[in-house]
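Why does residue order matter? Because the sequence determines the fold. Keep that principle in mind as you read this record.
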Amino acid sequence: MFAVPAAAAQAVIAYSGLEIAEPWPGRAICSLAFVRYADGDLGPYHEFAVAFLVRPPGTPPPSGRLGRLRGMRGVGAFIHWLPVNQEFTLECGRSIWGFPKELADIPMDLAGRVKRCAVQVGGRTAVEVAVRPGAPMPGGAGAPKVDAYSCLDGVTRRTPWTLAPSDVRMRPGGAKVTLGDHPVAEELRALGLDRARALSSTTVGHLSMSFDPAEEVAP
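Structure:
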């Protein structure tokens, strides 16, 4: 998770009609995530995500310190970019939930102490991420329910998402991001991710997830 300029983040997701959440004045949260899916309805595959915390559609921007804290309740994750490395999950993700999946090479190295992932599209590197696991968190740590938002072909959707994580580790900082020459890399560079220190990094040893049907929303 990275703190990035809210105005720049809003410009990136303007096409969705959604509004960036600001936990601090002028700052937004951008998250980078990579996942190795081992067993599920969509088969085994690798996935990378660029996401932003957003306010639920129709909610006014909170004001004041306490207002901002209360305003973070109910925030969702807008999935801006979601490359995968298998065709079946790409087709299902786009047609069933409207997730902006695209095909990419996503090599991962999860065997060592440092967990690594890269995304390469058409021979061009978009991003490389290395994460150092932190301290073990108590059982049940994490966010069990999240509203995931997406926008594909001009339609914005909300998909309720339930998570059950285990073997969770967290630390301040702990992530190194290297950007390439892909257009998405330029977006991330404009957000300052080529030089920003992560607010926190989280690794999850095992994660069960389920997605409800997507519903269209009017931002």
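Helices lie at 6-12, 65-71, 87-97, 183-190.
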